[in-house]
Specification:
By secondary structure, this protein is mainly beta. It has 2 domains: about 210 residues, Jelly Rolls, CATH 2.60.120.10; about 90 residues, Jelly Rolls, CATH 2.60.120. The protein has 6 helices and 20 strands. The structure holds zinc ion.
Length: about 325
């Protein structure tokens, strides 16, 4: 009983995207401006398909709707999480996402709290993360007078960094950065500023949402306090980056070794292999793993053994979802 369900991602072309999703991960991407790999997604804007097991060929939202036992009979109308890999060849727009209450009232979907694990960053690469306005009136004034350099806070990043981006945090992924993003399953983005660029795909400037952005931004900005926890399972180093009401996110690292995990309280687990090769063994069957694969460990997988040389990001749903 129980096996990992591997997924087939979908890709999104973006004016800021590049070719690293092919160059780094070998994905068959649609163009040289591919920005996003929606890897574990039941969102209607990009549905991942189950590639293995009894539900092979079904989209993830169908499995959620028809086979809730896979997810331990977790409640909710929509599959709550979305895992993406992003390739920012250019800066993304400066944006902010609403919380659940605002998003439900205005957009009829979940809010968006997200987080990033930095896979790769060019030397000197920076994220926009937070702002310097002291109050909402000052935020509005700086936006209206275009004082973006004074307003926006830039943070240098490198591979292996983790950033938690709660709803209401002004942010932009900077050029030269690849991240794995774990987020609430939502596509509601309020765009604050787009560097006055014209979209190379549509030939137009992308719309801004200044009023909504000012309304939902946390003022003043304060950095969330993260407490990293590390545990060792056999030869696997498990780093818990964040545990929130929306999701818990871990990194699993193993070098020439193995470790056997037992399912905790979480009803299911999402896994993305970011580097290396190895295997996952469930009930005596070994499934080979390599960089770029994404899978779900359903509820009936109670124990699994990870082996080889691997770096993976795993996530579990939080209590809120
Ligand atoms: Zn975002």
């Amino acid at each position: 009983m129980g096996e990992p369900y591997f997924l087939t991602p979908v890709f999104q072309e973006k004016m800021w995207g590049g070719t690293r999703l092919h160059d780094e991960f070998g994905y068959d991407i649609p163009s040289d401006h591919t920005g996003e790999c929606w890897a574990i997604s039941a969102h209607p804007h990009g549905l991942a398909t189950v590639a293995t097991g009894p539900y092979r060929g079904m989209s993830l939202d169908q499995v959620w709707a028809k086979h809730r036992d896979v997810f331990g009979n977790a409640p909710g109308n929509v599959f709550p999480l979305l895992t993406k890999i992003l390739d920012a060849k250019m800066d993304l727009s400066v944006q902010v996402h609403p919380d659940d209450a605002y998003a439900m009232e205005h957009e009829h979907e979940l809010g968006k709290t997200e987080c990033w694990y930095v896979i790769k960053a060019d030397p000197g690469a920076t994220m926009i993360y937070g702002h310097h306005a002291k109050n909402r009136a000052e935020l509005r004034k700086m936006v209206e007078t275009g004082q973006w350099n004074q307003l926006l806070r830039r943070v240098p990043v490198k591979a292996g960094d983790f950033l938690y981006v709660p709803s209401g945090t002004v942010h932009a992924i900077g050029k030269g950065i690849m991240v794995l993003e774990t987020q609430q399953s939502s596509d509601t983005t309020y765009r604050f500023y787009d560097f006055d660029r014209v979209d190379s795909i549509t030939g137009r400037k992308r719309p801004l949402h200044i009023e909504q952005s000012v309304a939902v931004t946390n003022v003043p900005h304060s950095d969330p306090q993260l407490t990293l926890e590390e545990i060792i399972i056999g030869d696997v180093r498990v780093t818990r980056f964040v545990k929130t009401p929306f999701f818990t996110v871990y990194r699993w690292q193993v070098v020439d070794g193995a470790g056997t995990f037992a399912r905790g309280e979480a009803p299911y687990t999402l896994v993305s292999v970011l580097d290396g090769v190895g295997s996952i063994t469930v009930n005596g069957t070994a499934y080979s793993l390599r960089k770029g694969q994404h899978f779900i460990l359903p509820n009936d997988v109670r124990r699994w053994t990870l082996a080889g040389n691997l770096v993976a990001i795993a996530s579990e749903p939080g209590e809120r979802v």
